[in-house]
Structures are given as C-alpha cells and as structure tokens.
Please model this.
Amino acid sequence: MSLDGCLAGPNLSRERPFGDGPNPLDGWFLQTRTFRAQIGEEGGETGPSDDVAAESMVGIGAYILGRNMFGGGPGPWGEHPQWGDEPWRGWWGPNPPYHTPVFVLTHHPRDPLEMEGGTTFHFVTDGIESALRQARDAAGGKDVRIGGGASVASQYLAAGLVDELEVHISPTLIGGGARLFQSFHGGDDEKRPALELIRTVTGPEVTHLKYRVLNH
Amino acid sequence: MSLDGCLAGPNLSRERPFGDGPNPLDGWFLQTRTFRAQIGEEGGETGPSDDVAAESMVGIGAYILGRNMFGGGPGPWGEHPQWGDEPWRGWWGPNPPYHTPVFVLTHHPRDPLEMEGGTTFHFVTDGIESALRQARDAAGGKDVRIGGGASVASQYLAAGLVDELEVHISPTLIGGGARLFQSFHGGDDEKRPALELIRTVTGPEVTHLKYRVLNH
Model:
C-alpha cells in the first residue's frame, strides 16, 4: 500500500493491473527471492522483506482474487497477444505464482482453468461469501489468503470475514485509484473493524505491518 | 494517522478538533510522559512511543498550525465557557504544549496572544509561505515543525516545503474526514514528492515512520 492508502493507481486495466503511476509492489515484493521462486525464476533479494514474503506464503491452501488480479479486463474473456490463439489465461503467464486453487471473483462465468505448477483458476460469479466457502473447502484446513485487489480486500474486511490483515507500506504517494479501505469511506462506524498490531518488520524501504482484525 | 490515512474524523469543530470517531492520537501520544510534561502534568507512559515523542520535540524553534489545531472554530474568534469572560484563547488551556512561537494559519486577523510557558500564538492571514517565513525567522536557526492538521500539512507537502515527514500509524480505521495526503488526490504526478524511509520505531500499538521528502 502506498503511504496514502492506495494499492494501485487510477485506470486499472487488463494490461495495467496496477493502473497509472508507481506500483507499490515495486521496490520490494517483485524483487524478492521468494516471489521470483514462485514464478520459477532464480535469484532475487534476500533480507527482511524477503522473509516477510516467504512467511506470507506458508500454510496457504487457496487464494481469492479479484478479476484484475487474475488479469481480466473490463470486457468478457477474450484474446490477448501474450496467449496467441488461446483464450486469455491471465497476465501471470503459464505458471502463475499461486500453486494452489485460486478463486477469481467475476461477473463472467467460465470453466476452471488449470495452469502449470498447481494453480487452478476457478471463476466465481455468486459473490464473496460463496468464494470464501469454496476456497475454505479447497484449502483443506490451511489458510485462505485474499490476494487483492483493493476492492476485494475491502469488501471482505467490511463483511467481517478477515482474521488477519497484512499491510506493506511503501514510501510512495499515488494520489488516487484503488484504495484498500474504500469500503469504509464515509460509512457507519459499525462496519469498521478494530485492529490490533501484532507484528512489524522494517525492510530497507517498506514497513511490513500485520494486524489482527477484531470483527464486531 | 489512522491506517486509512486520516488525521481526524469528519465534522471537525472548535470543541472537537479530532472530529467524530476514534482519535488517532489516543493510545499513544496523549499518554506519553513527554506530552504530559509539555502540558505540565506528571507521570505518563515511557517506552518506544515516548522516545519518539521526546525526539520530535528536540530542536524545534517554532510551530505552524492550522486554525483547528489552535482551537479556532468556524466563526470569528468568540467566547467559550473554558475561558469565562475572556476571548477564546484556544483549546490547549493557559499553558499550551508548544513553548515556542506558534504561527496559526487563519482567515481572521488577531493580535498575537502570549500564553504561559513560552508559547505565543501569532495569527497569519497571508498564506503558508508567509507563515513559514515568519516561523523560520522566529526559530532562530532551529527547526520549524508543521504540527497539523491534515489540511495544513498536506498543503505544505504539495508546495514542496517539507524536508522530513513523520507519520505515526495508528491501528484504527476512521473512514473519512481530514486526510493527510488530501492535496494529492487525483492530482498530477509532479506535485507528489518521492519519499525515503529513514527510521521506523515500533510502539506497542503504533508504528512511527520518518521519511525524507525528496521534493522536485
């Protein structure tokens, strides 16, 4: 998250899942050894931010993502140069970094999409509670991680369905676009959970915060 | 600042300088031994948050505040039960915690107001650059601290007049009201400074971040 509360800039699209402007994941997550291993690449940075990235991958049995995090554009599923004549299979490439079942919230039904490396995308059209139920079943007792984007994370927080919140504060100002806490803007107090800080790790640039969410 | 970027809730007023909802200074600053000493009280909490509070007071030769931080209401200067028959002299009481010259940005001219303990409020009606000039002159080589609120801090940031930024992230969600980075919302990229994280301190609840502001 940028210091001004954004997970992505304005004008999100299939090709620009972080919108315009600086990407708050740049400068730490995408460079870590952990993330590079998740996409089948070698090398990458080690240190406190890599430790946090590694810790966040432990014990995850399923992910939930919004459509832009899968790489869906504003229209129905279509083609894209990356995939040649194949239908669009997301912007993560053939071996996405999840390696578990992934439940993608969308308005466009589609059959499950099995990728390399253990990732299968399931497309859920009947809402966040259904997606959570399916993800819990698929996770087999492990944790379900809500991977974003901002709108999806914010909806789950407002629904009281989040136990822990990890926020990585990047030294950037984005000024608009996808806000993590957008569900709470101008809303009533009762929807806002209380938070308890349970862990802080300082990377060279980024501050990694972990909160327990005290739902009402 | 709350985790969702607010320094105060909605409906700021003279009597409620932090607006509606939780006050992000509660839970750390107001309880510290350092702040209590500034208002002439004994006791208070020690530990990392108190260390940060103490550090932030060192070497300050003048403050700049917005009118709500002085305790000005929406109307012209008037009376208030706290002050009996005297004209309103701010909500900090007879011995405010500044102990230096304080320059208050306002649209309502008023003669300087000398308080106990070395604080003199000067009322500046000709804008933020004039206030900074006057504060620098008064500080005699020491630092000028922009004490807030959100609107004033945001204006100075947008004007490229801030060298260092301290943000104390409180585990609260406020959902609206006075946002620290409101000057940058939807604005052009050029107005937004880059930031460099130079120090993190973790208190029991609050994360204290200090950035160098890299103005264009």
User: Anything to note?
Assistant: Chain A has a mean pLDDT of 86. The longest helix of chain A spans residues 128-139. Strands of chain A lie at 6-8, 60-66, 101-105, 113-114, 120-124, 143-148, 164-169, 178-179, 194-202, 207-214.
